[in-house]
């Protein structure tokens, strides 16, 4: 039963719970008798162990299990009775012994979900990112595809950006060659950032047969630990300079890009479709970010500390997984400050509660037809769309991920209809980070 419900802070509450000792003892006795039927001990046949020995061996564990079960059941009943929405795990502690041998008293302290209160949406300004895909972007992308399939031909001139140079080099630190600092017939394309800037600068402008000696300072975070932060002297000798030869925009090239009939126009159409899909994805992401910033401003409520702590733990775990994926050793031993993810965790929890409330208030759940349309659109970028759709629909977890995306999209669209929307026009290059 519940003796009382008290409020410690706006979101923190305490329930005082009392459990019947007789009821607990009866359940313990019931479980002990069940265990006794199959209990095994040296010198006794299974099921013939004296109850006193069964009690000594299993009694404390079973009593603890029964107590925890009874506390959990009672707490759940009282939470439902008081119409409380618990956020996080309750902290349950035994109360002071008042001499009542027929009851055990505990206090359960926990937080509840807040009441989300919204202000005037019409006072919020939201940016909607708009980008056009013109013929120029299509042609530029087609040229990139051609460059990716370029061949190289010898030239008798100084090396320039986009040329492929083949050279020999020897690197020394304090006059001594170091591991990995010597190579023959080494090739790379100038201007692609494949080598450190000093190395590229030294090769640029040299012709086949020419040599150059220069200093190169390795960055402190260079992957080669033996040379990181040190300065080496390199001597390079250019053996060959080759310039790129782009394939002609022909039927053969179109077929090499997956266009079965070799139509160059069809290739351009595919490029445009892919660019529009990428632009749509990026502009939606930017608009969504602006909407979420607006929602944070228009909603007021306290955020449960338990949810922030849980989200902080999750973000820290992801950070460690990322470090491990990057090859860092002993990531579990790295101490990550508690406040490193606190602000991000608080924002994520706050937005989650806001979105959840808007979905409930305005019926913004993902509809079946939205889910199918979303999956169909995603599948079109693959060689076999039918297989991709089957992959989604055969797994409930994958569908749930899709529904979560659509749900947020619905919230964004609803919010755009309630707020002051300002178009933020960007060029294609600005959106793609080329400027």
From TrEMBL:
Residues 162-247 form the PPIase FKBP-type domain. Belongs to the FKBP-type PPIase family. Tig subfamily. Involved in protein export. Acts as a chaperone by maintaining the newly synthesized protein in an open conformation. Functions as a peptidyl-prolyl cis-trans isomerase. It is an enzyme of class 5 (isomerase). It is found in: Cytoplasm. Gene3D superfamilies: 3.10.50.40, Trigger factor ribosome-binding domain, Trigger factor, C-terminal domain. Its EC number is 5.2.1.8. Keywords: Cell cycle, Cell division, Chaperone, Cytoplasm, Isomerase, Rotamase. This is Trigger factor. Consists of 3 domains; the N-terminus binds the ribosome, the middle domain has PPIase activity, while the C-terminus has intrinsic chaperone activity on its own. The keyword Cell cycle applies. It catalyses: [protein]-peptidylproline (omega=180) = [protein]-peptidylproline (omega=0). PANTHER family: TRIGGER FACTOR CHAPERONE AND PEPTIDYL-PROLYL CIS/TRANS ISOMERASE, TRIGGER FACTOR-LIKE PROTEIN TIG, CHLOROPLASTIC. The keyword Electron transport does not apply. InterPro entries: PPIase_dom_sf, PPIase_FKBP_dom, Trig_fac, Trigger_fac_C, Trigger_fac_C_sf, Trigger_fac_ribosome-bd_bac, Trigger_fac_ribosome-bd_sf, Trigger_fact/SurA_dom_sf. Its main location: cytoplasm. It holds the Pfam family FKBP_C. Signal peptide: none annotated.
């Amino acid at each position: 039963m519940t003796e009382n419900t008290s409020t410690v802070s706006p979101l923190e509450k305490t329930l005082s719970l009392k459990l019947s000792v007789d009821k607990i003892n009866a359940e313990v006795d019931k479980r002990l008798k069940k265990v006794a039927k199959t209990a095994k001990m040296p010198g006794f046949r299974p099921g013939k162990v004296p109850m006193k020995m069964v009690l000594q061996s299993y009694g404390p564990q079973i009593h603890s299990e029964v107590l925890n079960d009874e506390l959990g059941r009672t707490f759940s009943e009282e939470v439902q009775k008081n119409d409380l929405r618990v956020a996080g795990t309750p902290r349950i502690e035994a109360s002071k012994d008042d001499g009542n041998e027929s009851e055990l008293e505990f206090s359960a302290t926990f937080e509840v979900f807040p009441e989300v209160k919204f202000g005037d949406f019409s006072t919020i300004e939201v940016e909607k990112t708009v980008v056009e895909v013109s013929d120029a972007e299509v042609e530029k992308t087609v040229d990139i595809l051609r460059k990716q399939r370029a061949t190289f031909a010898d030239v008798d001139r100084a090396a320039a950006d986009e040329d492929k140079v083949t050279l020999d080099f020897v690197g020394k630190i304090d006059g001594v060659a170091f591991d990995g600092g010597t190579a023959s017939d080494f090739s790379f394309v100038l201007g692609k950032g494949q080598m450190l800037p000093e190395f590229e600068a030294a090769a640029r402008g040299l012709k086949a047969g020419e040599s150059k000696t220069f200093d190169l300072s390795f960055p402190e975070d260079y992957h080669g630990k033996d040379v990181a932060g040190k300065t080496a002297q390199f001597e390079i000798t250019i053996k060959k300079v080759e310039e790129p030869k782009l394939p002609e925009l022909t039927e053969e090239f179109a077929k090499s890009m997956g266009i079965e009939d070799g139509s160059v126009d069809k290739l351009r159409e595919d490029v445009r479709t892919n660019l529009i899909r990428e632009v749509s994805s990026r502009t939606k992401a930017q608009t969504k970010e602006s909407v979420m910033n607006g929602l944070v401003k228009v909603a007021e409520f306290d955020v449960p500390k338990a949810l922030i702590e849980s989200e902080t733990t999750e973000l820290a775990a992801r950070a460690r997984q990322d470090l491990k994926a990057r090859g860092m050793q002993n990531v579990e031993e790295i101490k990550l400050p508690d406040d490193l993810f606190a602000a991000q965790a608080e924002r994520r929890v706050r937005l989650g509660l806001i979105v959840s409330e808007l979905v409930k208030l305005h019926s913004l759940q993902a509809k079946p037809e939205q889910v199918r349309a979303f999956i169909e659109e995603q599948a079109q970028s693959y060689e076999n769309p039918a297989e991709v759709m089957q992959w989604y629909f055969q797994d409930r977890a994958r569908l749930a991920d899709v529904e979560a995306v659509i749900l947020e999209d619905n919230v964004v669209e609803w919010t755009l209809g309630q707020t002051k929307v300002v178009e933020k026009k960007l060029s294609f290059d600005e959106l793609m980070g080329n400027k």
